[in-house]
Every structure is written in structure tokens, then in C-alpha cells.
Write a structure and sequence with these properties.
The structure is a single chain. The protein is an alpha+beta fold and 696 residues long. It is built from 26 helices and 20 strands. The longest helix has 26 residues, at 308-333. InterPro entries: DALR_anticod-bd (IPR008909), Gly-tRNA-synth_bsu (IPR015944), Gly-tRNA-synth_heterodimer (IPR006194). Its EC number is 6.1.1.14. It catalyses: tRNA(Gly) + glycine + ATP = glycyl-tRNA(Gly) + AMP + diphosphate.
Length: 696
């Protein structure tokens, strides 16, 4: 039978709807399995006013249950041949008599058991409790209560449709009883619509100016945007996130083109786009060749009207007010050079325990210079990095950024150019916020990379230094994103600098500029920050290689990020060779032996070939010495594949060594000499990876 379930409510925030539909599907799937209800494919649909679940085929009754259930141990169930309370309770719980119990043999001994049979109940008797449970479990970023109800939901629930096989499923939630009627568009067709079948439900809603399918609404929006743009010789600026948001803001999309005065094109394009996008959800248009914005945008609206031009005129008044404000702020901000605004940052607190935003920019400027020098900058480029760091947050006190917070960095770049700063400085002010996400744009220059790394490390070290460490479910200062940004910049640009060096520079900058702010144990702080960065690196590498390969490389130590990437790639290819697994097993023996004999190894002198007695240990030493030369030469040129290929050649001498040589001999000198040989072998491998971490 068909099943239709719809929750109608006041308008939901657009971002709530997709996640709620996913939950609705998953919760029903889980609940139906627990209730022994079989079903076909589940479809979910949603608009701002409704969350819908549709199933073309749902079983009319539960499947019968027939299973053997095990109870308490036999010795606990019976004493002197008489049933105990444990046996009686088990029988009662399974709905059987004591005579129905029998004994079964398990891995843990003898237990009593019972065969249980339950006749499947009609689905209509199961669904009410099932559906009420699902609604109670739906989770939203923010929920609310209304009237005097104890239950909460994202927005007040106004109606519930629950129809199975054309019949009403009686249930209630938040004081609302289920019914067989839904409602059309709030303004265009607000009347009740009878629901009996899925096809009727969909067709009737569409006739009432509601498109329940988000995919269909999205496709309609994309077509309308393209058609309206092409009609005036333009193209829509690609903005999939805005398309997704608008899809869940309307029940049925309509579009109109909104032209505005070309005088506004004097504003930076980012200001125009932000004015249209962030505040009004309008789609900006550009010239077909991408050479610049056009003085027009496309609006997607929700209610059918007789004259779309009236919609355009009303929205133009709103947009014009926003653009007039932006132009006023722009003109006023330009009266003060960007560098003069640094002093104003003294009144902006960054973190109470650390200090002001002015102190932060001074640190970023200092650190950007240190990082830049480490990355190889010199001369004017080095000066540009330090200058951009000093000016990095100056746009935060401009009126445009105060009004349009998403333009920080963007306006810093624009104001820097207007203030006479050179192009490299201006671009680096923008680059400090890059990358903004896991796959987002990276800084385009070494100057920009220096400032971006400095900005992020200053935040991470500062927060860790005063105990503001991200928890498993909270990261209010975006430190994980910052750490991933540092890793991605170093990785993509191939900067062969160590994390230790960069972290030490950040800590040293705090000590020089703001002594006493960080906790006194700088060694522990550096270790915690490095571990945090390595965790982000681990996360980044998960898509590049198997988990155990990544673990093996990271366990050997993290120096510079590009080398880690190269080692992971080389080790992943080496793993497929026939000799690799036996070598990994042998190496694990090496690591285990050395771990147990760490104290004696500390006292052992360097390996002395004169002390070797067995041919196998001599052969291993000769192979190790030859391989070490090859590996060290390969490591010096970052030829990780060549290093790995050389290491695989040690498989046979390692196997022979463990077959023929007793490491832990009673002869102290001989034992320590063999331990020293194994230690050298381990250290050679650790230049690439700790392959003992590889799963056999």
C-alpha cells in the first residue's frame, strides 16, 4: 500500500529543510526495520512549509516473528530441579509457560531458552506510535516551543497528513491531530486538498502553486536564471550555494529581471554582489565574457502575480536603498587611508586574555616577516609580507565591513589599493583568509601565503596558549579550519619548511610582542599545536591513501608537509609488492625488540662490524650500509619512490637475520652490537615510515 506522511508548519529556515528530510528518511527506515514493516523506496520532499515522506509500497502488516530467545544460565534458572525467580521472570517476559522452556548449549555453557512467536499486527496499528516517535526525534539547529506545549519543533506545527492505503492513520504531535488534508500555496491557493494517493497528492499540490520536489524547484530556478540572463545578453554569476538556499525559500519559483543604475557599478563588484546576495538573495549578472558586472540582477520570488514588474519595482526600492548605503560607506571610508585605521584597532578586543586587534595585527606583521623569510622571501617581497600583516585587520573598522561582514579582506584589498599600497600588499591582505574551505582557493603568491600562514598560526597558538582548545563538538574560533588552511598552503606550494620551525616562530612572536600572555610551558604548547596540525594533516591525507599507510608515515615523524605527501604516495605503491608484507612483519619484530631493550640500547656503542659472528648479521650489515647510501641520497632529493624501492631490498637479509641470529645473546658486547644494528635499520626506515604500523 502507498504511504504519505507530511508535517506542515510555519516557514522553516532554508538550511533546516535538507537535513530534516535526511533525518526523516533515516528515522523511518530504522523504525520500520525495528517494527518489522517492509517497504519499497522512500522519497522525501520538502518546502519551507512542509516536510514529506512518500513510500510507494509499504507492507500492510508486520512480518510474523518466530525466533529462539536465550535466557539466564541453567544453573541460575533451576535450583534442585525447581524453577527460580529468574526462570519465572524470563518465561513471563517471553509470554510462555515454564513448561515451554528448554535448555541450549552455548559457548558459555548451558542456558535456558524459549521459542517465541508473535503474529504481525496491521501496519495501521503500528504506524501511530512509530510516527510520533520519529517526530519527537527530529533534531534542528534551533527548536522552539509554542502555546503551553512541552514538545518542541523548528517552527510551530500546523497540520499533519498521515495516509496509508488511502486511509487515515490516527496519531498526534504537539497537539495537532493527523488528517487526510494538506494545503496549497499560503497566498495563491490556501484551500484544503484531500489526500488519498501519492500521484494525487503531487498533482494537486502542483495545481495549487506548490512544487513539493526540491530537485524540480532547483531545476526550474536554474532554467529561469539562464533565460532571464540571456534575454539581456548577460550570464548569471555561478553561485550554487545561493541556488540551493533559494530552492528551500520558495514553494514555487518565479523569476524577474531587475535592472538598476549603472552608476552603482563604480562600487567594487564584491560590494554589489554582497548587497544583492547576502541581504536580498538576488542573483548577480555579468557580461558574457566575464569582464565585469552588469547593472541588473535576477530575483526569484515565491508568489504568482499578475504583473511581475510590480515585484521588480518593489525590490528595486529595497536594493537601491542597500546600494545607496554601500556607496555612502564606500565614499566615507575612502577619506581615511587604510594604514591610519590600524590605530583604531586598539578599541577592538580580539580575545580578552590576549588583547586587542591592534596587537594582533602587529604580531601578524612580525610573524609574516619571519614566515616569509623562512619560505625564501627577501627584499621587497619580505617587506610586503610584513606590511600586509600589519594592515591585515585594518578594514574591520571601516563602515562597509561593519555593514557587510563577509567583505573583510575583500575591502582591505580595495582600500589598500586606493590608499596607494602596492598590488602585492593589497592582494596579501585578501589572501590572509584563504583557503576558506577544504577545496577553496589558495593564496596566489608567496607573499600572500606568508601572511595567510601567519594569520592562522597566530590564532591557533594564541587560543591554545590560553586554554581555548577546540572540543569534539565545538570550535568557536575556527581553529580546525585554520590548521587545515596552513597544511593546505604548505602542501600545495611545496614549501619544505618544518612545522616545528613555524610554530616556534609564532610562539617567539607572542613572547616578543605580548610577553606573559601565553602559558609558561612553551614546549608543551608547541607540542600541542603541532599535534593539532598533524591531526588536520591526517584528515587531509585520508583520501589519498589507506589509513594504515597514512598512520605509518605520520608515526615516523612529520617534518615538512610536502615530504609527508610524497612518502605516503610512495609507500602506498610499495605496499602492493609481494615482498612488502613479509618485510613489514620483520620490521615489526625490530621495533618490538628495540622497544623492550630501550634502556640497554641507550648504553650500546655504535655498530662494530668486527664483532659480528654470524654470516646473516654480516650480510644484513652489508645490505644495510649499501641501502643507507641509496636511501639517504634519495631523501636528499625528495625521491621518495626511489627510497622505498631501496628499502624493499632489505626483505631477504632481514628474514635471514631473524632465522639465524639470536639477538638477545648472553654476551653483552655482542648483544648490544646486534641491537645497534637493528636500531640503525629502524632509523633508516623511519626516514620514510614506520611500516610496523601497516596491517598485515
Amino acid at each position: 500500500m502507498e504511504f504519505i506522511f507530511e508535517i506542515g508548519c510555519e516557514e522553516l529556515p532554508a538550511r533546516f529543510v535538507p537535513a530534516a528530510l535526511d533525518q526523516l528518511r533515516d528515522l523511518f527506515t530504522e523504525a520500520a526495520a525495528d517494527a518489522r514493516l517492509t517497504h519499497g523506496a522512500i522519497r522525501t520532499m520538502g518546502t519551507p512549509r512542509r516536510l514529506t515522506l512518500l513510500i510507494d509500497e509499504l507492507s500492510e502488516a508486520q512480518a510474523d516473528l518466530s525466533e529462539e530467545r536465550t535466557g539466564p544460565p541453567l544453573k541460575a534458572a533451576y535450583r534442585d530441579g525447581q524453577p527460580t525467580k529468574a526462570a519465572e521472570g524470563f518465561a513471563r517476559g517471553q509470554g510462555v509457560t515454564l513448561e515451554d522452556l528448554y535448555t541450549v548449549e552455548t559457548d558459555k555453557g548451558e542456558y535456558i531458552a524459549a521459542k517465541v512467536f508473535e503474529k504481525g499486527q496491521p501496519a495501521t496499528e503500528i504506524l501511530p506510535t512509530l510516527l510520533e516517535g520519529i517526530l519527537a526525534k527530529l533534531n534542528f539547529p534551533k527548536s522552539m516551543r509554542w502555546a503551553d506545549l512541552s514538545l518542541s519543533f523548528a517552527r510551530p506545527v500546523r497540520w499533519i497528513v498521515a495516509v496509508a492505503g488511502g486511509e487515515l492513520v490516527k496519531m498526534s504531535f504537539a497537539g495537532v491531530q493527523s488528517q487526510t488534508q494538506t494545503y496549497g500555496h499560503r497566498f495563491a491557493a490556501p484551500g484544503a486538498i484531500d489526500v488519498a494517493s501519492i500521484s494525487g497528492y503531487l498533482n494537486d499540490l502542483r495545481a495549487a502553486d506548490v512544487e513539493p520536489d526540491p530537485a524540480a524547484r532547483k531545476a526550474t530556478i536554474e532554467v529561469a536564471l539562464k533565460e532571464h540572463a540571456e534575454a539581456i545578453g548577460a550570464r548569471v554569476i555561478d553561485d550554487p550555494e545561493l541556488v540551493e538556499e533559494v530552492t528551500y525559500l520558495v514553494e514555487k519559483p518565479f523569476a524577474v529581471t531587475l535592472p538598476f543604475s549603472e552608476a552603482y557599478l563604480e562600487l567594487p563588484p564584491e560590494v554589489l554582489i554582497s548587497s544583492m546576495r547576502s541581504h536580498q538573495r538576488y542573483f548577480a549578472l555579468e557580461n558574457p565574457d566575464g569582464s565585469g558586472l552588469m547593472a541588473a540582477c535576477v530575483i526569484i520570488y515565491n508568489t504568482p502575480v499578475r504583473d511581475p514588474e510590480l515585484v521588480a519595482k518593489g525590490n528595486l526600492r529595497v536594493l537601491k536603498a542597500r546600494l545607496d548605503d554601500a556607496r555612502f560607506f564606500w565614499d566615507r571610508d575612502l577619506k581615511t587611508p587604510l594604514a591610519d585605521r590600524v590605530a583604531e584597532l586598539e578599541r577592538v578586543v580580539w580575545l580578552a586574555k590576549i588583547g586587542t586587534m591592534k596587537e594582533r595585527t602587529e604580531r601578524i606583521g612580525e610573524l609574516a616577516g619571519r614566515v616569509g623569510k623562512t619560505l625564501g622571501l627577501e627584499g621587497q617581497s619580505l617587506d610586503d609580507a610584513a606590511r600586509a600583516g600589519l594592515l591585515s585587520k585594518a578594514d574591520l573598522v571601516t563602515q562597509l565591513v561593519f555593514e557587510f561582514t563577509d567583505l573583510q579582506g575583500v575591502m582591505g584589498r580595495a582600500y589598500a589599493l586606493k590608499s596607494g599600497e602596492n598590488e602585492a600588499v593589497a592582494q596579501a591582505i585578501y589572501d590572509q583568509y584563504l583557503p576558506k574551505g577544504a577545496d577553496e582557493e589558495l593564496p596566489g603568491s608567496e607573499v600572500g601565503a606568508s601572511v595567510a600562514i601567519a594569520e592562522k598560526l597566530d590564532a591557533i597558538v594564541g587560543c591554545f596558549g590560553i586554554g581555548l582548545v577546540p572540543s569534539s563538538n565545538a570550535d568557536p574560533y575556527g581553529l580546525r579550519r585554520a590548521a587545515l588552511g596552513v597544511i593546505r598552503i604548505l602542501d600545495a606550494a611545496g614549501f619544505h619548511v618544518t612545522l616545528d620551525q613555524l610554530i616556534d616562530q609564532a610562539i617567539a612572536t607572542y613572547q616578543a610582542k605580548n610577553p606573559g600572555v601565553l602559558n609558561d610551558d612553551t614546549a608543551s604548547l608547541a607540542g600541542a599545536v603541532k599535534a593539532f596540525l598533524v591531526t588536520r594533516l591526517d584528515y587531509l591525507l585520508r583520501d589519498a591513501a589507506p589509513t594504515d599507510v597514512v598512520n605509518a608515515v605520520l608515526a615516523a615523524g612529520v617534518t615538512d608537509i610536502p615530504s609527508v605527501r610524497g612518502r605516503v604516495k610512495a609507500l602506498a605503491s610499495l605496499r602492493d609488492q609481494a615482498d612488502f608484507e613479509p618485510l613489514a612483519i620483520g620490521f615489526k619484530r625490530v621495533v618490538n625488540i628495540l622497544a623492550k631493550q630501550a634502556a640497554e640500547l641507550d648504553e650500546a656503542p655504535p655498530t662494530n662490524p668486527e664483532l659480528f659472528e654470524e654470516d646473516a648479521e654480516k650480510a644484513l650489515f652489508d645490505a644495510f650500509s649499501t641501502t643507507r647510501q641509496t636511501v639517504e641520497a634519495a631523501l636528499a632529493t625528495s625521491d621518495w619512490q626511489k627510497a622505498c624501492d631501496a628499502l624493499i631490498g632489505l626483505k631477504s637479509p632481514v628474514d635471514r637475520f631473524f632465522d639465524d641470529v639470536m639477538v638477545m645473546t648472553d654476551d653483552t658486547a655482542l648483544r648490544q652490537n646486534r641491537l645497534a644494528l637493528l636500531s640503525g635499520l629502524r632509523d633508516l626506515f623511519f626516514g620514510v615510515a614506520d611500516i610496523s604500523k601497516i596491517q598485515a
